[in-house]
Amino acid sequence: KVAIKGIERELICPACKELFTHPLILPCQHNVCHKCVKEILFAFEDSFADGGSESSNQSSPRIRISASSMDRIDRINRSGIKRNSLTPRSTLFPCPGCQRDIDLGERGINGLFRNFTLETIVERYRQAARAAIAIMCDFCKPPPQESTKSCMDCSASYCNECFKVHHPWGTVKAQHEYVGPTTNFRPKILMCPEHEMERVNMYCEICRRPVCHLCKLGGGHANHRVTTMSTAYKTLKEKLSKDIEYLISKESQVKAHITQLDLLLKETECNSERAKQEASQSFEKLYHVLEEKKSAALRAIETSKNIRLEKLQTQVEEYQGLLENNGLVGYAQEVLKETDPSCFVQTAKQLHVRIQKATESLKSFRPAAETTFEDFVVDTAKQEDILGDLSFHSSGLEIPEINEEQSRMYNQALISWECPGKTDTADIYVLEYHKLNREEESVAWQKSEVCGKSKVLSDLDVDSSYAFRVRGYKGSICSPWSREVILRTPPAPVFSFLFDDKCGYNNEHLQLNPRRTSVESWAGFPLLLGSERLQVGCYTTLDYIIGDTGIAKGKHFWAFRVEAYSYLVKVGVVPSNKIQKLFHNTHDVISPRYEQDSGHDSGSEDAFFDLSQPCTLVTLGMKKFFIPATPAAPKDPASRILPLPSCLGICLDCDRGRVGFYDAGRMKCLYECEVDCSGITYPAFALMGGAAVHLEEAVIAKYRDI
């Protein structure tokens, strides 16, 4: 048998860290004191009302909501989820045992069962802990006698004499159930918390809780698999007994594991002390190097100071000699008193040279030494960066890799990364990035700490290249930096628009999605019926669609994706004054050389045909990008055909009157030409046969659970 004093840790509430008092069983099968459940629930609801602020979590000094629960509050508040009066209210409870948010249902705390078995065990533990403290009789006249038994029906304790008086032989009370002295009285019949007048007589195998027949007939357990209480009692008791017997039979193995763990504890202590000593020695070496460098720098500054002070002091003395009755001037004044010409000339010649030098120095005064010590400024920027990265490198942390396919550079930058082993071993990641600039000698990395595996950056300049790298941290241990990845931002600010479903939109051939961000055409019966009526030399028309917003000035960029199965798609821009001509143009695909009225097959008419088009478009289709045939384009047709990028972009510069077509994945210009920007210009698309175009969605900072 296990000693009652050896199970204390199983009898401690995970919230208040004290022995259970009226414990309740949560749906996750953990137990929490009734009082603790109420306090946590009130604190949790207050945190929802205050937006998860720290100040709202101070209602109880012994209860504290877990960090994961606070994160959930922030997440729900950010998502804007609100309940109305028609929505069934569901109570969330942050379980302190498993650190998860548990749904208590509409009844909340009233739908929880009281764990009477655990309550009895706690009472037995308390009695064992306070064996010297006796339970007194509740009915004795003062002074009360020590009780000898407790009646579970009366919920009271009695001495022998009082028990006989209150439970006389031959009466109903004589049939009451009595036990040894106790203060823990529980009901003899377990009632359903949802149907208070019904006793529980079944066990729900899905929810793993006792239920009554009303719960099964029309309550929340109507469609659940249930069994009788006796069957559940027998089954669970057999399983628990077998598991206990197995654990008892493995007692020697458990003791061996405990011995091994004790050795590991000691070994951990020794290894940690050794690691501390090695770390201290490493830092001591750095201290010595820094002290030597510091002493050398201070000595150099002191030596330079003394030399400069000496020069300046000499210059001061020289200028003091120029004062009247002082130094050189005083000496010259005495020489002037000489009346003998020969003696005067002999002395005055050298004196005159010195006076001239002093006069010249007055005309161009210059200090003998510099007062600034700019040459002695210690540049420690690189060393600070290196010391900032100083941490414990571990081979146990995988080096993350930036996923260039999932990363996007659009209105904002979305940088995504992953670990090669697909395991998230790091607690936090640090993403660093800097703008590539050839003029800057030193690189200043900008840093951002991320809890997940992606980060949205909004402070990047357009038409610029940036280098990115990432590393993982687990406590004070970090992984090496990932390989640097260079990505380029769009050449201009992103222009947002939707497909226009009114102006010229042909709903018989084209289909828009509800958000108007995708358009699709298909080669169905309308196209076949139209072709059946046409003969040789006819034209097959394109179905055009434009953006719902135009551009009047500035430089703008937008991106889109063309499905790989698309047969023919044209993309570009159209001026507002040519939109009507665009939708009523009947000659928009096949060259006039094939027209019956042409009378000849001259390829020179293609140039006239291109110039006659109302808009500037390039042709895509069959996974190819076709550079238009212009005088500047390569003459070889094969060299004008490029693979179709996964994402295309268009950059319209109204100020320069030019439009460029880009590989939006690499932000590389594939083709550029002049365009008329005198009025308002709209994005234009044309589709024929089976084809689809999807506008690129803007990058937004979404909350991610990764």
From TrEMBL:
PROSITE patterns named in the record: B302_SPRY, COS, FN3, ZF_BBOX, ZF_RING_1
Any Gene Ontology CC annotation: acrosomal vesicle
Residues covered by the Fibronectin type-III domain: 399-492
Major localization class: cytoplasm
Entry keyword set: Coiled coil, Cytoplasm, Cytoskeleton, Ligase, Metal-binding, Microtubule, Repeat, Transferase, Ubl conjugation pathway, Zinc, Zinc-finger
Annotated localization: Cytoplasm, Cytoskeleton
A Pfam family reported for this protein in Swiss-Prot or TrEMBL: zf-B_box
Keyword Coiled coil: yes
UniProt domain B box-type: residue ranges: 187-229
Span of domain B30.2/SPRY: 477-704
Chain segments annotated as coiled-coil in the UniProt record: 258-285
GO biological process, one term: acrosome reaction
Entry keyword annotation includes Transferase: yes
Residue ranges of every copy of the COS domain listed in the record: 336-393
Domain of life: Eukaryota
One annotated GO molecular function: ligase activity
Sequence similarity: Belongs to the TRIM/RBCC family.
Name assigned to this protein: TRI36 ligase
Gene: Trim36
